[in-house]
Design a protein that fits this description.
heterodimer; A: 413 residues; seven-stranded mixed β-sheet; four-stranded mixed β-sheet; 39% helix; disordered C terminus; B: 85 residues; 4 helices
């Protein structure tokens, strides 16, 4: 009999080699968390430049107070699903707040962002439909697409002309077509041309779903995301978003103006068959939405910080994969160099994300930095100074240690 | 109904595959994409897109998971071409 874990042999071997080489880039532990931008890692005070805490709202006093009050008032958890005993007044209030914020008639809460994509995609599309997804889509979109049973057509990343060609080829089959894009892509930090995608889907009578996971609170005049920033918020049929980035909690949502959207409350299995979010999560998200709606200060500070880090890393000679955004993906020549640079940065007290093939687009090896509104000037200086050290070290072509092949579960396939 | 030509389809696909043929092996209908040509999942995505462009067809992701050999690709392309006709 073969061992059930044999299928992971190659990946496990590579991972073990990596551990032999030094720190585990996918097993970092924040031993203590001091603020949105600082934690103890490997016993050292470390600046966090690899989170999704774009607005630094995780330590916002009002959000913390709302969560603490909710936990005292409603308890630690709901112990039930939304269709049983797990709908509290708070869950309804959050959905009302989300609907109002997204300017949609309906909103649906999910316990995680991953589940929000699964629940929306599986709920919307079925075996008789076609889902057209951007090639660089997040794992949750690929998984939702597969689980839906829909025919999945992949179009070239951020390429409305390619989508147009494919929709034209699908004409006359009498099926529903759901186009899925993201506002900002999590690995490279590049933005989708939502207005052009909206034009294409209108032309062909398709539906458009935009996952604003990394753009909510980051883009748009009121922080609604990439579609708002491009002036086409009203042309998006379905939104997905998450609470675990700008909103600093855990959970996700779907939102829409479609008059029949509420059917998902009793047809979306990811909504129905899971315990509802803890009251404390819900309360902090309600507070966070109000903060970002009524005050653009954090968003402005985030972009100032992002622009500064971007320009300084560019000046140091690094190749950055996309125009300025809060996600700054520094491209390095290969996995070994990226791993070496990542390790050196961590030793120097700066944590960024290491992203390597096959989990990255086009097999790129990246140091993924994410900037926060909460980064102080001193922290930004320190991050940039440490990158400068790396730049000089790599320029002097210091031999790197023995190559340690890295393998990550791939985002897409 | 267009009678799709398996041989011509194979020739076209073989030409596309030559880019991935670092070892310079002879590509036949039984060449395995992963083990013989070392085409990983990322390269496979690019390959499928190239084939889609070349033949002006869509190859749904659902159909790709079972692809092992060049012949499997030829079969899919021919089926999609007939589907379009």
């Amino acid at each position: 009999m073969t061992d059930i874990f044999d299928k992971y042999g190659d990946i496990a071997v590579r991972h073990d080699q990596l551990l032999d080489a030094g720190a585990d880039p996918f097993g970092v532990c924040l031993e203590e968390v001091y603020s949105p931008t600082e934690a103890m890692v490997n016993g050292r005070r470390t600046i966090l430049a690899g989170t999704n805490n774009y607005l630094g709202i995780t330590f916002d006093p009002a959000c913390i107070e709302a969560a603490a009050q909710a936990i005292r008032k409603h308890g630690t958890g709901t112990t039930g699903s939304r269709i049983a005993n797990g709908t509290y007044s708070n869950h309804r209030q959050l959905e009302d707040e989300l609907a109002s914020f997204m300017n949609c008639r309906h909103a649906l809460g999910f316990p995680t962002g991953y589940q929000a994509n699964l629940g929306m995609l599986v709920g919307l599309a079925g075996p008789k439909d076609v889902m057209l997804i951007d090639a660089d889509s997040h794992a949750s979109i690929y998984d939702g697409a597969r689980l839906s049973g829909a025919t999945i057509v992949r179009f070239r990343h951020n390429d409305p002309a390619d989508l147009d060609r494919r929709l034209r080829r699908l004409e006359g089959e009498g099926k529903s077509h759901l186009v899925v894009v993201e506002g900002i892509y999590s690995m490279l930090g590049d933005r989708a041309p939502i207005a052009e995608f909206a034009e294409v889907k209108n032309k062909h009578g398709a539906y458009l779903l935009v996952d604003e996971a990394h753009s909510l609170g980051v883009l748009g005049d009121t922080g609604r995301g990439a579609a708002e920033a491009e002036g086409v918020a009203d042309q998006v049929d379905f939104y997905v978003g998450t609470f675990s980035k700008s909103l600093g909690s855990v959970g996700g949502f779907g939102a829409s103006n479609h008059p029949r959207f509420e059917v998902l409350r009793y047809c979306s299995r990811q909504y129905m068959y899971t315990a509802s979010s803890a009251p404390s999560n819900v309360a902090s998200v309600i507070t966070a939405i109000r903060q970002i709606r009524n005050d653009s200060t954090l968003r402005e500070r985030l972009w100032r910080n992002a622009e500064e880090v971007y320009q300084r890393l560019l000046a140091q000679g690094f190749k950055i994969c996309a125009p300025t955004s809060p996600i700054i993906a520094v491209q390095l020549p290969d996995i070994e160099t990226a791993y070496y640079a990542w390790s050196r940065l961590l030793e120097a007290g700066v944590y960024v994300n290491l992203a390597v093939p096959p989990g990255t687009p086009h097999g790129e090896s990246l140091l993924r930095c994410s900037v926060s509104a909460a980064h102080t000037e001193a922290q930004i200086n320190e991050i940039c100074r440490r990158f400068e050290d790396i730049a000089q070290e790599l320029a002097s072509q210091m031999p790197v240690q023995e190559p340690a092949p890295v393998m990550m579960a791939q985002a897409g396939d | 109904m267009v009678e799709a030509d398996h041989q011509a389809t194979f020739e076209s696909i073989r030409n596309i595959l030559e880019v991935y043929n670092a070892e310079g092996i002879e590509i036949t209908t039984s060449t395995r994409l992963m083990s013989d040509l070392n085409i990983d999942s990322v390269a496979a995505m690019d390959l499928i897109m190239e084939i889609e462009d070349r033949f002006e067809i869509d190859i749904p992701v659902n159909m790709v998971s079972d692809v092992e050999t060049t012949q499997d690709l030829v079969r899919i392309v021919v089926a999609r071409l007939e589907n379009r006709a």
